[in-house]
Design brief:
Elements: H1 2-74, H2 78-85, H3 98-107, H4 109-125, E1 129-134, E2 139-142, H5 160-166, E3 171-176, H6 177-180, E4 197-207, E5 210-220, E6 233-236, E7 242-245, H7 259-262, H8 265-272, E8 283-284, H9 286-292, H10 298-301, E9 305-306, E10 314-319, E11 327-333, H11 337-356, H12 361-396, H13 408-425, E12 429-436, H14 439-446, H15 448-465, E13 471-476, E14 479-485, H16 489-505, E15 519-525, H17 532-548, E16 554-556
Parallel strand pairs: 15-16
Antiparallel strand pairs: 1-2, 1-5, 3-4, 4-5, 6-7, 6-11, 8-9, 10-11, 12-14, 12-15, 13-14
Helix pairs in contact: 1-11, 1-12, 14-15, 15-16
């Protein structure tokens, strides 16, 4: 009786325990699978996100560099300097009103000519406005002199950007039209909605060493929307305020712990025409995500962030510097997150049913293998997409990031172009192949940072000594090539020797005293009907001769041997 009772009790209990063990095992396996899938997706997407934000930062830096060049160039023109030096000739009584100043500047013929110059400069530069102020901060000429909102006659001395320029500082800052370029009648709380944001650039103007005024320019953000063409992208200024975003609802938000939060209210209103800045919080994803996915590990959660009212966790990348006070940011949602949650639940139930139904080990192994194979295939496809994206980004790069020399791809394309031009015009063309001597020893003895400085010094020496139409390209490692249009071989040898001696006589200050930087050069002149690749090969062969002869020397390549010369 006791034995029968024990069997009746142990049978159902064993079945319940077996079901519990199947559920526990199914949960562990499903957790592991979804962790691997999420880890693969996060790693691949992180590389894509980093490449995208790097490209975004490069575009911002290039655009700002081009925009800075226009005011800096205009400030050097004799016409601009002369007009500002004579600005007191156009002045009216100090107590005169802004309309009186405006009428005076509009009726002065010299200022009208300068206004046309500024208008032409605005037309070809892509800037929204260009203006001049005298040493008292009074606007005397603008690119839109007849516009009702032009700066003619206005006092801009109190504007931070122009005030710094009147102290002799070239600067740029983010601001609003209402804050930097609107007339006195337009300023005020009722007109804040009409203010247009932009990047304001100010350059001091000197005449014979005397500060005579400043030149200002505005680059409207409306022209720069391509900076944030990718979903989740946004740009912040030096005070941590989001000034441009793909999602325009984020514009005007402040980054966590940004300087704008610590500013006095009056300063915030003066700069941004508002006092309240909602904070763009990027919280760790673990607390809320753990409620949805208890399988989420701390290592994976540390890479994920979440924003209020945004349902998906996201990756976050940012780049600061950009040769300006701006910073580039990218919030990239993990779009497969809902699928992962659904797949996890589905996988757990499938495994449970498989184990509970006594599916054979072979079936379980086969099913797991197929799942893993799909995971690896998806990972390979994503890796291929990443490689394609990186290749496209690399193809857009014209310059070597370290040295500033032309990239190999762009240099070879330029070489082929110059070879065709030399054939059409009948002018000589030389190519110099250069290689730093004992470069590996510099890296081994002084570190790779010293090697980088040596490469930078070589390119800087070349750019200082060469003509503007010459070109320097980095072919790889310490190997460089120099393109010399309209240059015969004898002149090419002289240039190579000049570069070689300059490199030895002016060692880089950033390197230790014991680090000796020298280079060997091979010179080749283009022969009739010779392809660009063969010309570069002959220059490499001459370089090899120079290095075989003891390094730190130059050698010229002999003319190519004609296939019919022996006949």
């Amino acid at each position: 009786m006791n034995t029968s009772l024990m069997r009746r009790v142990s049978g159902p209990a064993s079945f319940v325990l077996a079901l519990a063990a199947c559920w526990f095992a199914a949960s562990l396996i499903a957790d592991r699978m979804v962790q691997q899938e999420l880890n693969t997706a996060v790693q691949t997407q992180s590389r894509i996100t980093a490449a995208a934000v790097d490209n975004m930062a490069e575009v911002i830096a290039n655009d700002l560099a081009m925009s800075r060049a226009i005011p800096a160039t205009l400030a050097e023109l004799d016409t601009i300097q002369r007009v500002l030096a004579q600005s007191r000739n156009y002045a009216v009584k100090p107590s005169a009103t802004e309309p009186a100043w405006r009428n005076k500047t509009l009726k002065t013929s010299q200022l009208a000519l300068v206004g046309h110059l500024l208008q032409d400069a605005q037309g070809f530069s892509g800037l929204d406005a260009i203006w001049l102020i005298d040493d008292n901060g009074r606007g005397i000429a603008t690119s839109s002199r007849h516009s009702p909102t032009s700066l003619n006659g206005l006092s801009l001395r109190q504007q931070p950007c122009m005030a710094q320029a009147l102290l002799g500082a070239f600067n740029e800052t983010y601001g609003l039209d209402d804050d930097a370029t609107a007339s006195a009648s337009q300023r005020g709380p009722d007109n804040l909605a009409s203010a247009e944001s932009g990047i304001f650039i100010a350059a001091p103007v000197y005449d014979h060493g005397v500060l005579v005024g400043a030149l200002g320019a505005k680059l409207g953000l409306a022209r720069l929307r391509h900076w944030v063409a990718r979903p989740g992208a946004f740009v912040a200024d030096a005070n941590g305020v989001v000034i441009m975003a793909y999602d325009r609802a984020l514009e005007g938000w402040a980054l966590p712990r940004s300087p704008v939060i610590q500013m006095p209210a009056a300063t915030r209103i003066s700069l941004y025409h508002r006092d309240a800045f909602p904070t763009l919080t990027l919280n760790p994803a673990l607390p809320r995500m753990h409620l949805q996915a208890q399988w989420l590990t701390g290592a994976l959660a540390a890479q994920l962030h979440e924003m209020p009212s945004r349902p998906l966790p996201a990756l976050y990348q940012n780049r600061e510097g950009l040769n300006s006070a701006l910073s580039a940011h990218l919030i990239d949602p993990i779009t497969i997150w809902p699928n992962l949650l659904r797949n996890h639940q589905r996988d757990r139930w499938l495994l449970f049913l498989a184990l509970a139904g006594a599916v054979t080990l072979t079936w379980v192994v086969s099913w797991t293998y197929l799942r893993e194979r799909r995971h690896h295939q998806a990972a390979r496809q994503m890796a291929q997409q990443l490689q394609t994206a990186n290749s496209m980004l690399s193809a857009e790069a014209r310059q070597d990031a370290l040295t500033g020399a032309l990239s190999r791809r762009y240099f070879l394309a330029l070489l082929r172009h110059e070879v065709e031009r030399a054939r059409v015009t009948g002018t000589p063309l030389c190519v110099i192949s250069a290689d730093l001597d004992h470069f590996k020893q510099i890296n081994d003895d002084f570190g790779h940072a010293a090697g980088d400085r040596a490469l930078e010094h070589f390119v800087a020496s070349c750019k200082t000594s060469l003509r503007s139409r010459d070109a320097v390209g980095r072919l790889g490692g310490e190997e460089f090539a120099i393109l010399l249009p309209t240059t015969p071989v004898l002149a090419g040898i002289e240039i190579a020797e000049r570069l070689r001696l300059r490199l030895k006589q002016q060692p880089p200050a950033a390197l230790p005293t014991l680090a000796c930087v020298s280079a060997s050069f091979g010179v080749a002149q283009l022969a009739p009907d010779e392809p660009a690749e063969q010309l570069l090969q002959r220059a490499d062969a001459a370089l090899y001769v120079a290095k075989s002869g003891g390094r730190d020397r130059s050698a010229a390549a002999p003319p190519p041997v004609s296939p019919f010369s022996a006949v």
